[in-house]
Amino acid sequence: MSSPASQIRLLLVEDVPQVAQYVRGLLDAQQSIKLVDVVADGGRVASQVQQLRPDVVIVDWLLQGRTKARRVVELVREVGPGIPLVVLTVPQSPVEPNAAAGIAGVLAMPFSGFELVNVINAAHQKASSVETAGRSSVVAVYAPKGGVGRTTLAFNLAVALASQGRKTCLVDACFQFGDLRSLLKVPADAPSILDLPTDRIGEADLADVLWRDPSRIDILLAPSRVELAEMISARDVEKVLSLLRRVYEAVVIDLPATLGDVTLAILDAADTILEIVTYDSTTLRNTQAVSDAFRAIGYAAAKLRYVLMRADSAGGIKAEDLARVLGRAPEHSIVSDGPLVVQANNEGVPFVLANPDAQVSRDVVAVAAAILKAPALAAVRR
Ligand SMILES: Nc1ncnc2c1ncn2[C@@H]1O[C@H](COP(=O)(O)OP(=O)(O)OP(=O)(O)O)[C@@H](O)[C@H]1O
Ligand SMILES: [Mg+2]
Question: I need a surface site. Which of 94, 222, 370, 380 has the fewest CB within 10 A?
Answer without folding.
Answer: 94
